[in-house]
């Protein structure tokens, strides 16, 4: 599976969790696309996308105080304590202790109650059949200071989780080689995160059907996410 932490592009060998051999047909087509073939959003489309996002963000901040508190309260159903001008602090980072945001295990993915998987409210412009989901955690990954780039130990933790949680079901459905090529993950460094107070990373899943997505996100259970 190809992964990225949003640094300048580095192609990893297959043994390092990446490599050109792991790209899907869609990935190869995108990477080999010429300038003439590329079709960017029109100016009117960009204005409409930005207008909708700003309106949504304004409403969320007026209602909840911050996007982070909205994600906690409405999407994750974790209580969001006050303590900063944004109205949110992660106790794993700050030392503040609360019943909901205090992890049960200090190691990322160490306890199933310490993370949740949600569909992205604002997915990227991906092709039909590609799902964009976000994995949210109560426990932070080890990153560099002050830039917040993911360290190798964090990359290994995410890769192991992605392989087990998403890669295995996709392999069962599509076969080992094809299934592995259908899962990508990336993590923005801290400066690029729109909800930096909460640890999270992104996954793109090519061909995951609705049943799998609902299983991963636990949609339809008594507590909706």
Write the SSE topology.
Elements: E1 2-4, H1 25-31, H2 43-64, H3 67-76, H4 91-94, E2 115-119, E3 130-137, H5 152-174, H6 176-180, E4 183-186, E5 199-206, H7 210-217
Quick structural gist:
The chain contains 7 helices and 5 strands.
Description:
- 35% of the residues lie in helices and 12% in strands.
- The protein has helices at 25-31, 43-64, 67-76, 91-94, 152-174, 176-180, 210-217, and strands spanning 2-4, 115-119, 130-137, 183-186, 199-206.
- A 5-stranded mixed β-sheet has the order 1-4-5-3-2, covered by helices on one side.
- The longest helix has 23 residues, at 152-174.
- The radius of gyration is 18 Å and the shape is globular.
- It starts with a strand and ends in an 8-residue tail after the last helix.
- The model is unreliable at 4-22, 84-89 and 91-99 (pLDDT under 50).
